[in-house]
Amino acid sequence: MENISVISPLSTRIAAQSHFRTLRLPSPFQPRIEALAKTQDWYDWAGYKAPNSLWDSELEYFAIRSQAALFDISPMVKYRIEGPDAEACLNRITLRDVVKLKPGRVHYTAWCDDEGHVLDDGTLFRLTDEKFRLCCQELHLPWLLDSACGFDVRIEEETEAVAGLALQGPTSFALLRDAGFAGIEKLKPFDLADFPHENGMVTISRTGFTGDLGYELFVETSLALSLWDRLWQVGEHRGLRAIGYQALNRARIEAGLIVANADFSTAEHALRADRVRMPDEIGLGFMVDVEKGHFNGRAAIIKARQNTTMRHVLVGLEIEGNIPAEHAIVYHRKKREVGLVSAAIWSPTAKRNIAIASLSRPFGDTITDDLWVEIYAMRELKYERLMKRAKIVPRPFIKLDRRSANPPADF
């Protein structure tokens, strides 16, 4: 007699409940973060349990701008790319000229499909002549492996093997120095170096996502908690605080930095043909090095530039009033819909109501006047429609001298 398994409705419900109780992946720093989490405000970051806030998102933001803030970036997708052809392979894949990226340096870059539409953006770390680390938002391993066909190169995802911390804020340099990272003062913006820690090494780069003085630290997961403790012990005297994404997001908007699938749709996630973007349409045209030779999307980008067929432009807006224009529609002369706000805050540092918006050309390009945003504000338990004037302003919205000071100031 054939053996048939029967699943009862009760067992189905139990299985479903068990599924919904399944925890997200823990970060290597999870024990320390959980101990500090007063708000219990979590979100899913690439399958990991990550904090939106830990104690107070507004005060966490001010920790970035006035002292030092520690943010767990372990869920960020990380790839190790190495081999004799690693440089040539990455030059074929990404927009910027990797030959110009020397060992011990980092650059911000992006990569496109064959039609010139952005697949993702991220940071490329050149660890040695033949070893690189690529950090980004989305999963790209199959695409990277396909793109590496014909090159003598090894590509491996190392997200789970490498823990990461972003240490940002004016006291971040002094904190690292006091923690015993000798020579940290030598790192200029986008420099990286290895430093001893326990029985291994930690890679520290002078990079970040806040527009402030800051560093990113990468270490193998077995050393993650000891690295946290090393920073936390010294940080007690430097105002160190752990933060969640809400605070980081405020800082990155002030810095005019964009987030994939928030400020633009990546080519693999866009469901409609008019949602994809070329680098020039999201403010990344400066990356495109057409002189370096062939790379993914080169012909399509050049053609679009020559034929002026790019249809969108990403702009910074300053908006009257103090009500953030989150997801507001942008109008020309209060009538014609010309774009959408993707990120907006009242900036405590700039003391301005700011936003990042995608507009349909020629608006934001040759037509920049008489722009308005439509805001719905809750007043006495009723939403009121407000039309507020907006003007295009340069990004970043704030520029802090301490970010690029050499050597960093001792706050």
From TrEMBL:
Return the protein name: Glycine cleavage T protein (Aminomethyl transferase)
Organism source for this protein? Answer: Mesorhizobium alhagi CCNWXJ12-2
**Keyword entries, A-Z:** Transferase
Q: Which Pfam families match?
A: GCV_T, GCV_T_C
Residues that, per the record, bind substrate: E216
InterPro entries, per database record: GcvT/YgfZ/DmdA (IPR028896), GcvT/YgfZ_C (IPR029043), GcvT_C (IPR013977), GCVT_N (IPR006222), TrmE/GcvT-like (IPR027266)
Instruction: Please list the residue ranges annotated as the Aminomethyltransferase C-terminal domain.
Output: 314-398
Limits of the GCVT N-terminal domain: 46-292
From which residue to which does any coiled coil extend? none
Gene Ontology MF term list: transferase activity
